[in-house]
Design a protein that fits this description.
The structure is a homodimer. The first copy, chain A, is α+β, with helices and mostly antiparallel strands. Chain A folds into 2 domains: about 10-170, 60s Ribosomal Protein L30, Chain: A (2-Layer Sandwich), CATH 3.30.1330.10; about 185-365, Phosphoribosyl-aminoimidazole Synthetase, Chain A, domain 2. Helix content of chain A is about 35%, strand content about 20%. In chain A, the strands form 2 sheets. A 6-stranded antiparallel sheet of chain A has the order 7-9-6-10-8-11, sandwiched between helices. At the A-B interface, helix 1, strand 1, strand 2, helix 2 and strand 3 of A face helix 1, strand 1, strand 2, helix 2 and strand 3 of B. Strand 2 (about 55-65) of chain A pairs antiparallel with strand 1 (about 50) of chain B. Chains A, B: It catalyses: thiamine phosphate + ATP = thiamine diphosphate + ADP. Chains A, B: Belongs to the thiamine-monophosphate kinase family.
Chain lengths: ~375, ~375
């Protein structure tokens, strides 16, 4: 039994084997970890051997860098409150690294089967942080319901700052993958496509603004807003909204069954929203020579619940800020799917716009351009 | 057709799509890239779908960090000369990232089927460098003979420094994987195991010492050593040795068929040498409750060709330095296998020692302890 890490211990003195003990203790929390089918191999060797029952597997990878994609001192999220440091920052980072990969597998219509972790970090990295990272990876697998997913291995390296690179694999169980591009012939039979979304939009972006507001200033702003609130709606209070938004940023919750549901409901194209609905719907459209139109009513409705928070944060215009969160904010990991126009909306999805022919008459709806959303190398 | 990158252009102005164009142009050099079997999906979507013909796949991952695992200004390697900068540093980094992952797949007895690249970098990263990185990844796949291997996808992110994380997948084609641990029952039938190695040991470590010697000083040292050389052996001249050693460090060449050859020759346990023969043979032994003994004659023989280089570099003792390179130097990615004592040595392997019972009488041969070799978090 590995003793729990001391609060201020750093990884420098542990060596690789000590670090692996810390990680593996947390990874054991993933239910299927100990149960490997005949002919497969778990972590600890040069490589792992993973089952792919239908003779194919889905695979994706993501890298997160310290101070860019995560911070060492991200606060803890307990229920809807957020406070505390240390283990918590690692937990949220691990959770998010797992969630964004599991979301990619989901967006192909696959079911997650494995995660690999490549971790570089300085010797001064707190042990509690990597312990939290491992707990967060395992926690996301468990709480997001990736019941078949195992932690299959990884790599450790050292660097001046922490980089977390996670790779996920998935199974299709014999179904075709649902791509960003329409299947051959789909253009001919569909004049127009409905754009549907599963999951929220804008909450993670709102949460980033909450987390980037200095703590003292945030308390001041929320207190002022609370004094102006209607006392009969405490469950929609700005303090609770702020905590929910922070949780959405720190622990995104892609709906892992949704990819399969949409595929079975006849989704023709699909992708997850990592860089914002505007940008990603634009990508889905462009991949098919189409143009995306978001329903401005949907944007307004989706934004309405966030408006009090935007106002409380003292942002120029509450309404405009909330709508920008919804249309351009990334990292909610919703699932965007295209269906034949008028098709039944799959369970858990809402219609948020449409994909139309590039040459179609300009619609009244908001056009999706290249503006808005996130590009790691140009705009923000 | 994407125009060739200008020498001093950096990635900041390209955006993700521009960076992907640069990478994909190089990845197209991998022969099988365009030829994806029915039901599989290539790069560009949320995830890739890769074939796993026998219903399982081998998977491994490695992360490399700038200034730790590679340098932006690593020199070029042309044949056995090394000079030039820019593209070349990226090429060697891409090559090495691919090679160490392909080596892990090989060490399980698998055949590489796919590579994923997760790349974080600052906007100031020279375009020529990432162009070189992509060319190096594709070059290693081609030149190391991973004929079935595709580039299946990846992820881009930004950070203050470059991190390259590569994940590889492989196929076993129905064969059992060869693990670090002996198969059940193997202890009972084998009193003693032979330790065999395919590939060189010590060359990459020698190369690191060459590359870390300032260029002017290196020229001076090599010129002095050349004046003392026998003129009838120019092909073993120290300048050529230095270039070969640098090439071994920058472009390691794991023998990708060797895993399968050893498996078919009855190898009971196997792993690749990434952290040095001493350390990795020790790990192979420890995984089986055994003790590793290296044959001191093999160490001496293997070191002998490097002695002139060690002497030229003005290192304390040429013989001792060369033997340390061979026994403790990592990154040659040789393949270490354990066979029943006296079994025929598989083609391409040499016997370098043995694995004996922990309780066995101490042998005259060099004992393998925890000293020597590379741990990212403690000794060097």
């Amino acid at each position: 039994m590995t003793p729990a890490p001391r609060a201020r211990q750093s990884v420098g003195g542990l060596g690789e084997s000590g670090i692996l003990r810390i990680l593996n203790r947390r990874f054991a929390a993933v239910p299927a970890a100990g149960d490997w089918p005949e002919g497969t191999v778990g972590p600890g060797d040069d490589a792992a051997v993973v089952a792919a029952p239908d003779g194919r597997f889905v695979i994706t990878t993501d890298a997160m860098a310290q101070d860019r994609d995560f911070r060492l001192d991200w606060p803890a999220v307990h229920g809807v409150r957020f406070d505390g440091h240390g283990l918590a920052g690692g937990y949220s980072t691990g959770w998010k690294a797992a969630a964004q990969n599991l979301s990619d597998i989901n967006a192909m219509g696959g079911e997650p089967s494995g995660l690999l972790l490549a971790l570089t970090m300085p010797p001064t990295t707190p042990v509690a942080w990597i312990d939290g990272l491992a707990a967060g990876l395992a926690g996301a697998v468990r709480h997001l319901g990736a019941t078949r997913c195992r932690i299959v291995g990884g790599d450790l390296g050292s660097d001046d700052r922490i980089t977390v690179a996670v790779t996920a694999t998935g199974d299709l169980d014999g179904r075709p993958a649902v791509l960003r591009t329409l299947p051959p012939g789909a253009h001919a039979v569909t004049a127009d496509l409905d754009l549907v979304l599963c999951g929220r939009a804008g909450w993670a972006a709102a949460g980033l603004d909450v987390l980037e507001t200095p703590r003292g200033r945030l308390d001041e702003l929320l207190r002022a807003a609370e004094q102006a609130e209607q006392p009969e709606q405490p469950e929609h209070g700005v303090r609770r909204l702020a905590a929910l938004a922070a949780a959405a940023q720190l622990r995104p919750r892609p709906v892992l069954g949704a990819g399969r549901v949409a595929a079975e409901a006849g989704a023709l194209a699909m992708m997850d929203v990592s860089d914002g609905v505007l940008k990603d719907a634009g990508r889905l459209a462009t991949a098919n020579g189409l143009r995306a139109e978001l329903d401005p009513d949907w944007v307004r409705r989706e934004a309405s619940v966030l408006v009090p928070l935007a106002r409380a944060l003292d942002l120029a215009s509450g309404q405009r800020t909330a709508e920008r969160w919804v249309s351009a904010g990334g990292e909610d990991y919703g699932l965007l799917a295209a269906l034949p126009a008028g098709a039944a909306v799959p369970v858990g999805f809402r219609r948020i716009g449409r994909l139309v022919a590039e040459s179609g008459a300009p619609a009244a709806a908001e056009n999706v351009g290249s503006a808005g959303g996130w590009d790691h190398f140009t705009d923000r």
